[in-house]
Amino acid sequence: MHRALGPRAVLRPGPEPAHRRAPRGRPLIDADALRVLHRAARVLLDDLPQLTDRLLCLLQEQEPAYRAALESDTPGTWQEVHRSLRHSVSSLLDPRGAREAARHCTWRIGATRAEQGLPLDALLHAFRLGGSLVWQDLVDETSRCAPEDVRLLVHVASDVWDFVDEHCTLVADAYRQTEQRLAWRRENRVRLLAGALLDGTSRIADLPETAAALGLPEHGRYVVVAVAGEAGSRDAELGPATRAHWHAGPEVDHCIVLAPDGDTPAGVEPRNAPGVRTGVSSAVDGLAAVGDARRLADVALSLCPGTGGTVRLTDHLPEALVVSCPELGTALADRVLGPLAELDGADAEVLVDTLATWLACEGSAQRASRRLYCHRNTVLNRLRRFEQLTGRRLARPTDLVEVGLALAARRLMPR
């Protein structure tokens, strides 16, 4: 840690003439101040191990972060402080020659301490404390050997503290840049781990790291929420107490949600913004199965109307079966509803709409007639006509299942 003096023009002594003549254009008092400074700095350089020990004692007393650093790596911390002080005191004697080495040392300390997680406030305090200690030792040494020269140090005091400020700024810049780089790496690693989990390509050996990175337990019940729409995934907010991890995609965002203990997916309540489509998967056990949940969430999303809303897979399993295999869904629709193609388009739509409404009303012709604004007998006549054209009997359970799936395929499959 560079605690000392800066490479300013006033500190560029050059060779000292025997008669101590001031450099051309410089006051004599500056040359005398540099002479006093250099004499004290040489003594500090010889006593550098003791200076290092004293600074570490102060840090241990005043900075808990450095107490922990000393406990974990005493030799390494001592060497770091010693190296920093050596560069700092050397800068008093040869500011021009020692400048780059001192800056490089400070930068490396800032980067290393950021990687280790030492708080920046503690690091800056250490630099300022070191600067104070060096300055005090310069004054004490001059007072001891030549008390009459202490007043001359005033003329280099501003340069000393400018140097300390410069290196505090430098170490803070190194710390912040390293911190930003580490944060980017962490975010990218989290994204890769979450992406592999959702894709179903995550390795079993990576699950503990993935759980730690996402802040979710490895074992638990999970649902995945798939969100699409201009408003973006964050508008489909979850409950405030929900533990979840969002993963942004180019078109669809996914959220891995830890379902409360014993809860069903109904416990996950997305709040959609207008125009946002949301699909919620059924629950799966453990992070290892999140890839399956994501595929189910995408199926639920495909069932969501274009105007927006939320579709829970568990509430739409028949439709999910149809869209999960489009080829079979299309084949079923053609097989069951194909005979209606011989009718006029409007006539066929009336029969299909009547059948769908009757199914939505749980087989009640009376309720269906109220929705369709027609007589109950009209509904029954249309249903009988459908049976005649398709050869299906709506009273037969197997036929009714096929008809319901065929209608779902017709509604959901692109035509």
From TrEMBL:
One Pfam match, given by its short name, reads RsbRD_N
Q: Name all PucR C-terminal helix-turn-helix domain ranges.
A: 351-409
**Region of interest (Disordered), ranges:** 1-25
- Enumerate the transmembrane spans: none
Superkingdom, according to UniProt?
Answer: Bacteria
Domain RsbT co-antagonist protein RsbRD N-terminal spans what residues? 49-189
Q: What protein name applies here?
A: Helix-turn-helix domain-containing protein
Q: What is the lineage of its organism?
A: Bacteria, Bacillati, Actinomycetota, Actinomycetes, Kitasatosporales
